[in-house]
Design brief:
The protein is an alpha/beta fold. It contains 2 helices and 8 strands; from the N terminus they run αβαβββββββ. The chain has a single domain, classed as Immunoglobulin-like (Sandwich), CATH 2.60.40.2020. Helix content is 19%, strand content 48%. Strand 7 and strand 8 form a beta hairpin.
């Protein structure tokens, strides 16, 4: 009886490992420094995702100078903002050092959408200093 229980447990554990190995994820991580944007102010990317896949962007940002990124998603039935965070700079007391904004988007439905991100100072009709545009196509799993 004890051997039968051990064999049953081993078969169940093996089955779970095999099933979990069949799950695929196409998560993307993109990182852009301030130098990247100084070289090219307007950047773009194209992504092909499946539902539940994610895009994680790490973007240089200097909140101490009043700058921040904003995002506009054309079709939120296709892609949704999942998370946002700002990481303070790891500088030794240097005023005005840039930090990092981390944006995470999740594919939520089939279709194509465009995300327009602009980096500018808050307040007023100030033209964006930098932009990042993503074209995202989501297909069924």
């Amino acid at each position: 009886m004890k051997l039968r229980s051990i064999l049953l447990f081993a078969m169940l554990a093996t089955s779970l490992l095999l099933v979990s190995g069949c799950v695929t994820s196409h998560d993307y991580n993109e990182e852009f420094s301030c130098d990247d944007f100084e070289e090219e102010n307007h950047r773009s990317g194209e992504f092909e995702l499946e539902v539940h896949d994610k895009i994680r962007l790490e973007l240089c940002s200097n909140h101490t100078a009043g700058f921040a990124w904003s995002a506009e998603i054309d079709n939120e039935d296709v892609l949704a903002e999942e998370d946002y965070d700002y990481i303070e700079p790891e500088s030794d007391g240097i005023l005005g050092a840039p930090g990092t904004e981390i944006w995470t988007f999740e594919a939520v439905g089939e279709g194509t959408t465009e995300v327009t991100m602009e980096y500018s100072q808050a307040g007023g009709d100030i033209q964006a200093k930098w932009t990042y545009t993503m074209t995202v196509t989501v297909e069924e799993e």
